[in-house]
Amino acid sequence: MKLSIYSAALTLLVAASGAAQATCTLQNGATAGSVSVSFSTETFDPGPTSASQRQTRAITNATMASAMGISGSQRIMACTGGESFMMTDSSYTVRAGYSPNDTGYIETGIPNLYMYIVYANGTATGIRYPTTAGGSYSRAASTINSGSGRWADIGNATVYLYQTGKISQGGVVPAGVLTRWRTSDGVNMVDIMLNSFVVNVKSCELTNKTPSVPLGEVHVSHFTGVGSYAGSTGFTLGMNCDSSIKPTVTFTGTSVSTGNILPLNNPDADTTAKGVGVELLYGQKGVTLGEALSLGTTTSGINNYSFTARYVQTESSIQAGVAEATANFTINYE
Q: What range does the domain containing 305 cover?
């Protein structure tokens, strides 16, 4: 009796083990494979931009089938337990969204730059990844060519690179798995791989971030009254830029008098001159502190912008002394 009990228990264990096995099997000698997608280097202007499609890459159903060692017209998989075909398992973060093709987004790691995948021209429709909810695509295998799904039924894929807004930083988008086609019970079909690519944002870099402008020694007698000036000295702000950038410069300081005069450093010191300040000019026009000044449009390479600094009398009387002023400046560009 003990022997028969053990035998029955063994039979039950074998049956349970068999029930846990996958019920989808690859057909026609198919094996799991992969295809690769490559985007070319992207270069963005730094200014505000509206949403736009940047690049697309096509993957035909024949390419997907070939990756598995079959043709597009051959059956991929036989499933007997209500399983689904899925696009899932991306190595990138996927997120909810509403692309122009009714998908969510695959993140590139560059803010406002995303990817997504859409299938068309097959007998099955509405195949998109990720979903607008940021999830996996899933479709019952039995609904694709009556359960004999082929890559010809799934159709041809387009992988989109899509910009949703301003791109303010560049970087390298790493290689990885965009998505994996597999069954819901874990039988892999094709991985769609992304090769790494570079994202650049046009920029400018100052050739000298701390320029010093020596105004020299100016005698008090050179001034004739409030608003008169002396000691004019030219200086240049140089920037190494990409082409077609529109930079602005904003000078800041504690303004006195008319709002475009820089006060002298250490104004309360006995050795500091009194009754004068420093004015900056761009061309023949005084620079207003705190306001962005347009510098036009750059060419590729070194762009030099000529300014003038000069002493300006701010009070009715002047006391000789050290006359130094400091202006901070910020470069913005688009």
A: 204-333
